[in-house]
Design brief:
The protein is an alpha/beta fold. It contains eleven helices and ten strands. It has helices at 37-48, 58-82, 93-113, 130-139, 156-171, 189-205, 222-226, 231-246, 271-280, 298-314, 330-343, and strands at residues 4-5, 17-18, 21-31, 117-126, 142-149, 178-181, 212-218, 253-258, 285-289, 319-323. The chain has a four-stranded parallel sheet with strand order 4-3-5-6, sandwiched between helices. The longest helix has 25 residues, at 58-82.
Length: 349
């Protein structure tokens, strides 16, 4: 129990308590503990059992998931993860980058508030779990927690399920900390500036200027849009704000969606099909960016930079530029720090 003290006016035999702190808990999607069959199966089972992600009735979906899907898919997903795995640290790139983001944000907030703030991270699926990190923050004396899902655009399958898990973790605490959740920040000027800077840097490094920028967002079933999920609107607005910030014409940038899963229609156009269509339409040089991801992961490093690149080149495309996620760049950390400080108002200053 770090930095303990006895409450003011307490009797001499009162137990010491940790000094009160404010916790800032970053949350990302998650990662398997390894690329072999059983770690992949555990991770995929947790992820694909989440009814925010796949909302089919459990009686219908679970036999399919626990049978056919989890018999075959761990091998395929494990092979994909192996192509991007951080062998030196024995972890996924998402884990490595999230640790780096946490360290930089912790340094920024500690410089400002000292020991009064504690910054940590958790994963919605896999380790470290949301429950374990909430428990650690409470044990360390955090009487207030700002929970920060690292998703610029809101979706029920990302932001909401992360918040759900945070609230479930709070339910286990006898003495609950006061809590806030970070709203989506897709239209924050600092976030748009960071995206624009990454695009300008990517174009500057390209051998030849790309003909078009493809903003590829993670997909969702189209039905979710009709049921009230604002994700599609947030994505389209992100692209528009980025276009305006760059001062580009409408035909210099486009919005697509990737990672379709299952039989129903998802948000379109699908990235893997659209890049092939662009190549066939004469757009031989393209750049792809993934504004919905705060850190490079399997969907960007393997799906975009391998599968989607292959689709483009197979259709006649010649020059494919992948622009990395914002990761732990200074511009991204600046944007996140600004959002966090705004949402800590009244708690520390």
């Amino acid at each position: 129990m770090a930095d303990p003290l006895r409450p003011t006016h307490a009797p001499a035999d009162h137990p010491v308590l940790p000094r009160e702190k404010v916790g800032v808990l970053l949350a990302n999607l998650g990662t398997p503990d390894g690329t072999s069959y059983w770690p992949m199966r555990r991770y995929l089972s947790e992820f694909l059992s989440d009814q925010r992600v796949i909302d089919y009735p459990r009686w219908k979906w679970q036999p399919i998931l626990q049978g056919i899907v989890l018999t075959i898919r761990p091998f395929k997903s494990g092979a994909a993860y192996k192509t991007i795995w951080n062998e030196a640290a024995d972890e996924s790139p998402l884990m490595t980058i999230t640790k780096q983001q946490t360290a930089k944000l912790s340094a920024r907030l500690t410089d400002r508030y000292g020991a009064r703030v504690m910054v940590d991270y958790c994963m919605r699926y896999g380790n470290p779990s949301t429950e374990s990190r909430v428990r650690a923050m409470v044990a360390a004396g955090c009487t207030k927690i700002l929970f920060c899902p690292l998703y610029p655009q809101y979706a029920g399958a990302t932001t909401a399920t992360a918040n759900d898990q945070f609230f479930r973790a709070l339910m286990a605490e006898k003495w609950q900390p006061a809590s806030r959740t970070l709203p989506p920040y897709f239209d924050d000027p600092a976030y748009i500036d960071a995206l624009a800077a990454s695009v300008e840097n990517g174009y500057a490094q390209a051998t030849e200027k790309p003909d078009i920028l493809v903003c590829s967002y993670h997909g969702l079933p189209f039905r979710y849009l009709t049921e009230g999920d604002p994700y599609h609107c947030h994505c389209v607005k992100t692209t528009r704000l980025l276009k305006e910030r760059l001062g580009w014409a409408d035909d210099a940038i486009t919005t697509t969606f990737q990672s379709k899963f299952g039989p129903e229609d998802w948000l379109q156009p699908y990235t893997v099909e659209e890049v092939a269509r662009l190549a066939q339409a004469g757009k031989k040089r393209i750049a792809v960016i993934a504004p919905a991801f705060s850190a490079d992961c399997i969907e960007t490093l393997e799906e975009i930079n391998e599968e989607i690149r292959e689709s483009f080149e197979h259709a006649g495309g010649e020059d494919f530029t992948y622009i990395p996620c914002l990761n732990d760049t200074d511009a991204h950390i600046d944007a996140l720090t600004g959002r966090i400080l705004a949402n800590l108002a009244g708690w520390l200053d």
